[in-house]
Amino acid sequence: MNTLSIDFIKEIYATHKENSLHGKWITFKDLEQLFSKYTSVFEVSQIGTSEENRPIMQLKIGNGEKKILLWSQMHGNESTGTKALFDLFNCFLSSNHEVFSTILEQCTLVFIPMLNPDGALAYTRVNANQIDLNRDAVDRSAKESKLLRSVLEDFHPQFCFNLHDQRTIFGVEGTKNPATISFLAPSEEITRRLTKGRIQTMDVIVAMNSLLQQLIPNFVGRYTDEFYPTATGDNFQKIGYNTILIESGHYPDDYPREESRKYTFFSILQGVYHIAKSFSFNNYEKYFDIPNNEKLFFDVIHRFPNTKEDVAYQYEDKILDGKFVSKLNKVGENSLKSKIGHSEIVFEAKKN
Asked: Which terminus of the chain has fewer Cβ atoms in its 10 Å neighbourhood, N or C?
């Protein structure tokens, strides 16, 4: 296994983090100013437009035979992977380290950093026509879905990275920790059979998890591999394109997703480097050692010992008057003894 040095990845991230991108609401306007600085080392091009005619951009780099396709923000309100990709772009732009030269010698990389710019602006999961692009792989009714499939079929990648965010409700089974990063090797059909493609995908995930366990032990989960017939990853895997799903989740006190951004960056870099250095991908068994995701958490729980049922609250993020607003909403009032609050307030019973 080709595991990166912890000191190296910490240093490279601190040096090359793209500080102009911060928080959860990342729009095309935030990225537009950045593309020009990468033209000296990347092929930067507009490959299409969204339903509302916003540009969809692609960056391409490397000369190797191993082809890797990475995309982010197919759900417009899931931007952690986008930030991590721009951190990675800065590394290719400015670092002379052997890790990056090896990747570029062995691999050709294609990035679509924002597939759904309309959803990004509105801060919604869906596109401008209310289509969930991650459930549109069969019908391909959205322009963005057609474009992604076109890139896939023209490029013929050996591996794909499908970058998402997951909700704060998820924890790591068997712990009291949130699932800061979760991985998935998607199923190809309903029986979840271990095909050659899934085994190769699991191999890369094992390498990424090996790195993360040195940094955030027991904060990594395994997303459900239930087969979704219309999902992007499941269908790409089914037609022969190994697809690695990375779900960036919550880290304690990290609602802007800046800590999870860092671990997403580490995961992507480790995964790509492992692909660059490996010539067989059969080390899959430890994939099943990664604990399952479990719905363990609420954002806030009010505890009322001996007096009444507990009350749970979740943050709802939305755009109001052009500003990002996060509002705490009551979502439940019942027995929550098996649940954990990212924040908990205990109200003591009044004494007579």
From this structure: C
